[in-house]
From TrEMBL:
One of its GO terms (cellular component) is nucleus. The lineage of its organism: Eukaryota, Viridiplantae, Streptophyta, Embryophyta, Tracheophyta. This is TF-B3 domain-containing protein. InterPro entries: B3_DNA-bd, DNA-bd_pseudobarrel_sf, Plant_B3_domain. Coiled coil: none annotated. It comes from Lithocarpus litseifolius. It comes from the Eukaryota. PROSITE patterns: B3. It holds the Pfam family B3. Residues 22-99 form the TF-B3 domain.
Length: 99
């Protein structure tokens, strides 16, 4: 029997994330001002078939946020709900986020 340390869960979760579809964003000021975060086209072309209107952002801590997706002219954004997430986690220009 193995007793899990607190850090073990984070390592296991991070290992799973490496194999899951993911993308990164460097936060620019317009993302915060406009209240939306663009999802890279390469990601949406590869994984965007049948996207729902809602994305569930699950953090390693176990927290989960619902954010509505907006699509227009081949662009997809995290929009309604994104400003709350950014404010709660004090997301600032220059931060590097992995989704």
């Amino acid at each position: 029997m193995r007793i899990e340390e607190e850090g073990d869960r984070n390592i296991d979760s991070a290992a799973v994330m490496v194999n899951a579809p993911h993308f990164f964003k460097v936060i620019l000021n317009n993302c915060l001002q406009d209240g939306k975060l663009g999802i890279p086209r390469k990601f949406t072309r590869k994984y965007g078939q049948g996207l729902s209107n809602t994305a569930f952002l699950k953090l390693l801590s176990g927290a989960e946020w619902n954010v509505e997706l907006t699509e227009s002219d081949g662009e997809v954004w995290l929009q309604k709900g994104w400003p709350k997430v950014a404010k709660y986690y004090s997301v600032k220009q220059g931060h590097f986020l992995v989704f």
